[in-house]
Design goal:
By secondary structure, the protein is mainly alpha-helical. The chain is built from 5 helices and 2 strands, in the order αααβααβ. The longest helix is centred in the middle third of the chain and has 13 residues. The radius of gyration is 14 Å and the shape is globular.
Length: about 120
């Protein structure tokens, strides 16, 4: 999904950037994703789409309902491990139970957006 530079990368809602706000922690007022994390995840999504589709057993869009996929919690662990090879996952433990509550891929990426940050080399 592409929108204007100030739109949420996941839902395209307008996001107001304030001069005194911390850009790294800015969240979308509509879907709640962390903007910086969602941007990283969408770049990862585009680069790794084939691997993601293979692990989820078929073509996947952001609107795909997770219940429609041959999907199990181990698949989610594999997806997070693939993510860890590309971005830093923050926090000591990923809450897989909370991630499993997501209904669509877009919602899953929104939840994951709070857990990732760019690699600092």
């Amino acid at each position: 999904m592409t929108g204007r530079p100030n739109d949420c990368p996941l839902c395209a809602a307008p996001v107001e950037y304030k001069l005194d706000a911390d850009a790294e922690s800015l969240c979308c007022p509509v879907c709640g994703c962390r903007i910086e994390g969602a941007s990283l995840l969408l770049a990862f999504w585009e680069r790794e789409r084939t691997a993601i589709e293979l692990s989820l057993s078929g073509p996947v869009t952001l609107e795909t309902r997770l219940s429609e996929l041959e999907y199990e919690s181990l698949t989610l662990v594999e997806l997070v491990m693939l993510l860890e090879g590309n971005v830093d996952v923050v926090g000591s433990e990923v809450d897989y139970e909370a991630l499993n509550q997501a209904q669509t891929m877009r919602e899953l990426l929104g939840r994951l957006s709070h857990l990732v940050e760019a690699r600092r080399h």
